[in-house]
Design brief:
single chain; about 350 residues; alpha/beta; seven-stranded mixed sheet; six-stranded parallel sheet
């Protein structure tokens, strides 16, 4: 059995990790970390875990935790994992960080967008960006994985095949994205109150959202060129889900069949990326509660542009599910172990 510790187990992503890992046949959760609920029963924080989890919440002592588990998940605010991790800890256990601390390779870019000094830049280069569909082999050998952000995961997987094949002008990319309110975390904020969110949709982080440089960096690796793009996220009144609609100019004329072949070539062996049939647009309700990403595209010959679309659950493939997918690879397990989650409907 893989012994697991979770720091930040009472946030939305941490709670989703617990839900998924409780159904994983090769895992035993040894540490339910939560700075806000130390010594409180986990099932009192999340009543859905009544008679399922008997443990109490513990602190975020990563040094003690490293002595007891094989892997630590850190589902914490930016800066915390980087402030706790050190060489001694990494010599004893693996770490999968769900924050942005090790996603961006350029420390100056991280500090500019996240408005904080990076606590441990010496580990940035080593950290593997945990997008399994692209970095599978590197993840298998990693001791520190930077779990990708939710918006970047959906955006990247929607665009990646065409960026990699050089079919789109990377300087023309515009990404319009929408997310359920769980993406903002469990902390109490006025902007997330029911009366603020219900019957409302709004853009936020316009031209300044922190996931922008992560998307640009990863698409830059795919295309082999520096990428600068527009990314605008929106908050919609639903619990979970992300919908991405991205636009780019085509470099040459291409038929539907040719583009479909490209998407199929990249994803037909990927367990969790589903390329939809012609003219079927991804919808969040068809991936809710699952680790799937549904993607598709539409060529607009009138404007010589392509519309690339993706939908996924921000808490599963966008956070906890992808983290478990990474863990499976790191420990030589089937990649889909514990993640055979049929999307919930209604």
């Amino acid at each position: 059995m893989i012994k697991v510790g979770i720091i930040g187990s009472t946030g939305y992503a941490g709670g989703e990790l617990v839900r998924i890992l409780m159904g994983h046949k090769d895992v035993e959760i040894k540490w339910f970390g939560s700075r806000s609920y130390i010594d409180k029963k986990y099932a009192e924080v999340y009543q859905n875990m009544f008679q399922i989890v008997d443990a109490v919440c513990m602190d975020d002592n990563m040094e003690e935790l490293a002595e007891k588990v094989d892997v630590i998940f850190t589902a914490t605010p930016q800066g915390l994992c980087a402030s706790l991790v050190n060489e001694e800890i990494l010599s004893k256990t693996k770490v999968i960080d769900l924050s942005a601390d090790f996603r961006i390779k350029d420390v100056d870019t991280y500090e500019e967008w996240y408005k904080m000094k990076h606590p441990s830049p010496q580990f940035i280069e080593e950290a593997v960006y945990g997008l399994c569909e692209v970095n599978r082999q590197a993840v298998k050998k990693a001791r520190l994985v930077a779990n990708p952000g939710c918006y970047p995961t959906c955006s990247f997987l929607s665009i990646y095949p065409l960026a990699k094949e050089g079919l789109i002008d990377m300087s023309t990319i515009i990404i319009d994205a929408k997310s359920g309110t769980s993406g903002a975390g469990r902390g109490a904020k006025v902007d997330n109150l029911y009366c603020e969110v219900n019957e409302n949709i709004k853009a936020y982080g316009v031209a300044s959202h922190r996931h922008t440089p992560e998307i640009e960096e990863q698409l830059g690796y795919a295309s082999g060129e520096k990428v600068t793009l527009n990314f605008t996220p929106h908050l919609v009144p639903m619990n979970r889900g992300i919908l991405v609609t991205a636009y780019a100019s085509l470099k040459k004329a291409v038929t539907y069949e040719e583009m479909k072949e490209i998407y199929e070539r990249y994803y037909n062996k990927e367990r969790f990326v589903r390329v939809l049939s012609k003219d079927i647009c991804p919808q969040t309700k068809w991936v809710e509660g699952s680790n799937y990403v549904d993607v598709n595209f539409k060529i607009d010959p009138r404007t010589n542009r392509v519309i690339m679309m993706g939908a996924m659950d921000n808490l599963v493939k966008g956070a906890a599910g992808q983290a478990v997918q990474n863990m499976n690879l790191m420990f030589g397990l089937p990649e889909s172990e514990g993640l055979e989650l049929v999307p919930m409907f209604p």
